[in-house]
Amino acid sequence: MGRADPGNCIVRARSGNQTRFGLYTLQYTMRGGMDGFEEFSVLLSELAEKARVCGLSDGELRLLIGSWPLSPRPSREHETQARRLYELLGLVRWLLFEDAAEWLRRPHHVFHGRSPLALMASDQRMISVLRDRLRDEVDAA
User: Fold this and answer.
1) Do 119 and 111 meet the contact criterion of CB atoms below 8 Å apart?
2) pLDDT tens, residue by residue, 3-26
3) In the 8-state DSSP scheme, what is residue 1?
4) pTM exceeding the 0.90 threshold for the entire prediction
5) Which alpha helices (DSSP H) does the chain contain, by range?
6) Which of 30, 61, 117, 118 falls between 20 and 30 A from 124, CA-CA?
7) Taking a C-beta distance cutoff of 8 angstroms, is the pair 42, 72 a contact?
8) Residue from 48, 67, 45 nearest 57 by CA
């Protein structure tokens, strides 16, 4: 079984918030508990659950990632996008709890009257931008 490459982490380790963002999967993988194929399958399952809790439909996931459901061996582009969205949804849930679904759909003046979901759907690069901004919020807390 292969070991995970720390440079290809699900999410970056942040102080005491590791398990809140799903790093248990990564830590298990790094101990040699599962290979990259198994790790990504678990990530897909967790992504589906986070998306459900955040009120995202399969169609919205397809729009944000480029394909949904993903095969366990997707293209590198789809895998990267899935990992970014996985981390973003984890951050949104951790910061906003039950308000996460509403926040994703509500228009915000910061986004020129658009919702975060509409913004990400119009430009997939915004997933990384929003993820980085939310990381900064977590670091500041």
Assistant:
1) yes
2) 333 333 333 333 444 434 444 444
3) -
4) no
5) 23-30, 36-53, 58-65, 76-96, 100-105, 116-122, 125-140
6) 30
7) no
8) 48
